[in-house]
Amino acid sequence: MRCPKCSYFFSEELRTCPRCGQDMGLELEKIGFFPPSTTEPYLTIEDFIEQEEPQPMRREIELALPEELT
């Protein structure tokens, strides 16, 4: 988010500008609600490990065609 007073860019989680102290309440109402950051990561290392997918079973199928087609 950008402060309209001093043009400083900062996180939407802060309600006041860290540089000039401008209250950002009205600006936050305009752009909407941003939830606070989490302490736990959303993705873990296990999410990036490739799992080996089981191979489908292959079966041979015999087709009996009429004599006139062969």
Describe this structure in words.
This protein is low in regular secondary structure. The protein has a domain at 1-36. It has one helix at residues 25-31. The protein is elongated and about 90 Å long. The mean pLDDT is 82.
Task: Please describe the topology of this protein.
Blueprint: H1 25-31
Describe the structure concisely for a colleague.
By secondary structure, the protein is mostly loops.
Please tag this protein with its features.
70 residues, little secondary structure, 1 helix
User: What summary fits the major beta sheet?
Assistant: none
Radius of gyration: 30 Å
Shape verdict? elongated
Q: What structural class do the secondary elements suggest?
A: little secondary structure
Strands, total number: 0
Q: What fraction of residues sit in β-strands?
A: under 5%
Terminal Cα separation, in Å? 74 Å
Overall average pLDDT: 82
Instruction: Spell the H/E element sequence.
Output: H
Helix content: 10-25%
